[in-house]
Amino acid sequence: MVPPNISTVVEFHLLGFQNLLEWQTLLFAIFLFIYSLTLTGNVVIIAVVIKDQRLHSPMYLFLKHLSFLEIWYTSTIVPLLLANLLSWGQLISFPACMAQLYFFVFFGATECFLLAMMAYDRYLAICSPLHYSSLMSPEICTKLVAISWLTGVGTGFLPSLMISKLNFCGPNQINHFFCDLPPLMQLSCSSTYITEMVISILSIAVLCICFFLTLVSYIFIVSSILRIPSASGRMKTFSTCGSHLVVVTIYYGTMISMYVNPNAHLSPEINKIISVFYTVVTPLLNPVIYSFRNKDFKEAVIKVVRRKCGIYGVRVKGSFFIR
Question: What are the DSSP E strand ranges found in 106-206?
């Protein structure tokens, strides 16, 4: 309970990158460029998967949901980061801070589940191709996607609820660019031991288990690839799976380092750099790695673009018919 002579914090001051004042304009331009590419890339993926019937398969259903998730996940963080860079610090109310925290955990956890499901899907496709259609039918795929979203919704409640119950008596300056768990717990004037323990256990349950399942799936995939007789086939599949694994490792590795031990007391600047990787970088890399390096997807993009250009060309000529 807060002593009666101590005021309760009603808003927080996000400091962002105030230690890099001379770089604020450059950082704004870089983050705005990355954010624009992220939105564009993920919107293109969703549109192409919906338009092209050939991409109506479990793999691309997962990818469509991952792209939809990435749009909201990065939009939970980056717009406020951009505003922070323009104003050299941003005020955020306590309810808004808790809302941002909830959606960040919700979307982050959902991404972990989706990445694990996508790895399992690739494992079935490569290691059990004869049984793939029955083991990953559209109905099963839809259920797995629904489970990922619903589990993410539930995962977001506990950390945000426990943080909201802590006492914040001042100071109200968060040395970060969004309302993250470690800096909020450091600002609390009440005991955070139970909160830290719960967040650590939840992080192990979500991050470590999902990462382990994803890693096991790729180990089986690699062992199956090694049995491919064609050297070119092995190299092509290795290149694709290797890229997937690099992005997954960056995402899980940075998240685990931050949340499995939220009281690790890393320097604020290190925390910010690590956070940039899983809030800004991976949402950009995912559409590039999972889609734009895929031959079928690139062909579908060309097909959709040609169709749109054809429609535009006919309209320019004044015709109401679509070729």
Answer: 173-174
Half-sphere exposure of 246 (CA within 13 A, CB side): 12
How big is the CA angle at 158 (ends 39 and 13), to the nearest 5 degrees?
A: 60
Asked if 263 contacts 182 with a C-beta cutoff of 8 angstroms, the reply is yes
List pLDDT tens digits, range 128-179: 888 888 889 889 999 999 999 999 999 999 999 999 999 888 788 888 899 9
Taking the C-alpha atoms of residue 71 and residue 75, their distance in angstroms, rounded to an integer, is 6
Which is nearest to 156 in space by CA: 92, 98, 71, 214? 98
> How would you label 143-162 residue by residue, b for 16+ Cβ within 10 Å and e otherwise?
ebbeebbebbeebbebbbeb
User: 3-state class of 152 per DSSP?
Assistant: helix
Q: What is the DSSP letter of 270?
A: H
> Sorting pLDDT into bands at 50, 70 and 90, what band is 257?
confident
